Amino acid sequence: MNDQPETAVDARTHRWGMGAFFAAQAVFVLVSVLLAAALGNSGASALVLMLVLPTIFAGAVAVVITLVRGNGPRLDFGLQWRWSDVTTGLTIGGIGMISTTIATVLWTRWGPEEAESTVGGLLDEAQLSPALAVVIFLHVWLVAPLCEEMVFRGLLWGAMERLRWSRLTAFVLSTAVFAISHLEPERTVLLLVIAIPIGVARLVTGRLTASVVAHQVNNFIPALGLLLLSLGLLPA
């Protein structure tokens, strides 16, 4: 019984809607702008802060909103430790990693030459210490997926369920918004390929744990690449 997807009634017991998602996005943008204005080109540590903190703050806003206007992330997002969800996330994430790797190779070969990720572009010329490189690795691999999932397939998905939109609609729209919100127009199609398996994990389980795990699995290779790049073990 506990491993069944949440029902539409369960998903609508919270009291937050689309405004919650926009609030988290606004915090992300505001923190990014404030850090850029305050730190500017202050070195590698400043760059790491500008990459890490906006995402963490947005994720924190998602948690606070569920506590104030809902039942907490465990119930509202289905962010619970269940081996069935972890297994589903690992399986779908593994499949997604394969499809993403193939899509990335094809995109690198035939896509626009300037289509590089924002994080990768910022780190190309950065001289990071091993400690800072590990921080970026752990953030991209583990922390960013958790925060992003709480915002996109937590707040946004939950808002659409509260409006009584179908789960399939929530999957399609959250996937599209996730890809577009990265503000990398040249890579939007590739980001859609990356986002689809992650959304599928949320769709089939009805809970966020599976999509977080799938997202983390999918981010492992890019995170490892950034680590090796930052340490000078891969060419820029």
Automatic annotation (TrEMBL):
Q: Indicate the secretion signal residues.
A: none
Q: Which residues form the CAAX prenyl protease 2/Lysostaphin resistance protein A-like domain?
A: 132-221
Q: Which InterPro entries match?
A: Rce1/LyrA-like_dom
Stretches that traverse the bilayer: 20-40, 46-68, 89-107, 127-144, 165-183, 189-205, 217-234
Taxonomically, the superkingdom here is Bacteria
Could you list this entry's UniProt keywords, alphabetically sorted: Membrane, Transmembrane, Transmembrane helix
Q: What is this protein called?
A: Type II CAAX endopeptidase family protein
The species this protein belongs to is: Saccharopolyspora cebuensis
